[in-house]
Specification:
Shape: globular
CATH architecture of the largest domain: 3-Layer(aba) Sandwich
CATH class of the largest domain: Alpha Beta
Bound molecules: 5-phosphoarabinonic acid
CATH superfamily of the largest domain: Glucose-6-phosphate isomerase like protein, domain 1
Largest sheet: 5 strands, mixed
CATH topology of the largest domain: Rossmann fold
Strand content: 5-15%
Number of domains: 2
Number of strands: 12
Oligomer: single chain
């Protein structure tokens, strides 16, 4: 998509944080004095992120993804074209950072019932992201796809993630049993040299593979081949997605938080966090954007939930992300947000112009409760409910702010992803933690290895057996 400067400006994402301030929230809001008091810290966080951009050793390679993938993007586009021609279904096998991005982009930028459309009405194969190992789900998938007509994108940086590799074994076996060469149905996205998938590719005679760079962790990988290949297969304009990310990067160049939307969001969240707001609700008013909340939940939780600072000082920081959908969750969670504990920051994702308007016909004229809706559109209704919820929260003294996407498309989604990634990086820098590791996930992984008898975990197995449930504590 060609984008003139005027189009870029028109599609620019903006952040409205008025409802975070004491101007509207009184003593429940953030004062200009408090905000200004954090200017220096924000500047330092900005400097830290800017100075370390692109450094693989710090896992900050993601900052350069909008700029350094020219060749691989061409390769991905060519491969995607072949896949679209050859296969009926495209299945991502991955978990966490290897799955949440592809699911999000699919829902954001494709028809909401893509898989149910007849082939003539969709440009791409049916699409599935298998990010769990529930055996019922695996069987259900195998019931509805023909493996002989399916391409499987195995996405794992380490190639050692039990969930993904168990799926890999099942699918490879199914392909062999179906009498086809697995190599022709697999694409790997993995670490360049270290991952087990590199070895498996050799064993299978050279599987088409894409590299997830050393300095790009799973949750920051959506703009790498992890997300770009599935998106390209779906016909999403991945060049424009990257342009959107680069545009947001440009909008976030300033060290002045009043001129840098990601830095402002990070500073506000940091202030709120230090004031006991331990919950970050993300509430898109758009079904297309509903899985942005899942992707954000991992980014925010895994990056910021840490127990030690970079100086080795103990800390227990982070905010619990909560996923909500407007308007659906107005009828489920908003009661709590409005009247429950003062422990949340609600971030709305609002849409300026929906792809469909949804005219509401006149009718039920004798029933004013219903007839007033006639002549409006669903777009007007959803936008009004979005504003009304923000208003109600503000009236109740609840911190909330709005990220406005003028429309949902590849350019605005690219901006949004980069906004959240930068916001996370700045917040991690303010908290002085390692934003890019996830040691808290390791203990559970190791215990699984022990329970399934992986060599080298005997001691842990004994410990687990000892810690088995006490019958006295079972009711
Ligand atoms: O963000 C992360 O790093 C994790 O969520 C990983 O993406 C997830 O654990 C999968 O790891 P891998 O890509 O090695 O299979």
């Amino acid at each position: 998509m060609k984008l003139s400067e005027a189009m870029r400006k028109e599609l620019r994402i903006t952040v409205d944080y008025t409802n975070m301030t004491d101007r509207l929230l009184g003593d429940k809001g953030i004062s200009a004095k408090t905000l200004e008091g954090h200017r220096k810290l924000a500047r330092a966080a900005h400097a830290y992120v800017s100075e370390n951009r692109g450094k693989d050793e710090l896992f900050m390679g993601w900052t350069e993804l909008p700029y350094n993938q020219g060749e691989v993007v061409e390769d991905i586009l060519a491969t995607a074209k072949l896949i679209r021609r050859k296969f009926d279904a495209f299945v991502v096998l991955g978990i966490g950072g290897s799955a949440l991005g592809p699911s999000m982009a699919f829902t954001a930028l494709c028809h909401l019932h893509h898989n149910e459309l007849p082939r003539s009405k969709r440009r791409a194969p049916r699409f599935y992201v298998e990010d769990n190992i529930d055996p019922v789900r695996m069987k259900a998938l195998l019931d509805i796809i023909d493996v002989r007509k399916t391409c499987f994108n195995v996405i794992s940086k380490s190639g050692a993630t039990s969930e993904t590799m168990a799926q890999y074994l099942i699918i490879t076996d199914a392909l062999k049993k179906a009498g086809v060469n697995p190599k022709e149905h697999l694409i790997f996205t993995t670490d360049a040299a270290r991952g087990n998938l590199v070895k498996l590719s050799k064993e299978l005679g050279g599987v088409k593979s894409y590299v997830l760079g050393d300095g790009v962790g799973g949750r920051f990988s959506e703009l790498s081949p992890v997300g770009l290949l599935p998106a390209a297969v779906l016909g999403i304009d991945i060049k424009t997605l990257l342009k959107g990310a680069a545009y947001m990067d440009k909008l976030c160049k300033s060290a002045d938080f009043r001129k840098n939307p990601a830095l402002m969001c990070a500073t506000l969240q940091y202030i709120a966090m230090n004031d006991g707001k331990n919950v970050s609700v993300l509430m898109p008013y758009s079904d297309n954007l509903r899985y942005v909340s899942d992707w954000y939940a991992q980014l925010w939780a895994e990056s910021l939930g840490k127990n030690v600072t970079l100086d080795g000082e103990p800390c227990h920081v982070g905010q619990t992300p909560v996923k909500a959908l407007g308007v659906t969750d107005q009828h489920s969670q908003v009661q709590l947000y409005t009247e429950g504990p003062y422990d949340k920051v609600v971030t709305f994702l609002s849409v300026g112009s929906y792809a469909e308007k949804g005219e509401i016909p006149h009718g039920a004229e004798g029933i004013p409760d219903v007839s007033f809706l006639g002549g409006h559109t669903l777009e007007e209704l959803i936008q009004a409910e979005n504003k009304a919820t923000a208003y109600a929260l503000t009236k109740a003294g609840r911190l909330n702010y709005t990220i406005l996407l003028p429309a949902v498309n590849a350019f605005t989604l690219g901006q949004l992803l980069f906004l959240f990634e930068l916001q996370t990086a700045y917040t991690g820098a303010m908290l002085r933690i390692d934003t890019y590791n996830q040691p808290g996930v390791e203990a559970g992984k190791k215990a699984t290895f022990a329970l399934l008898g992986k060599p080298g975990y005997d001691l842990m197995k004994r410990d687990l057996d000892r810690a088995a449930s006490d019958p006295d504590c079972i009711v």
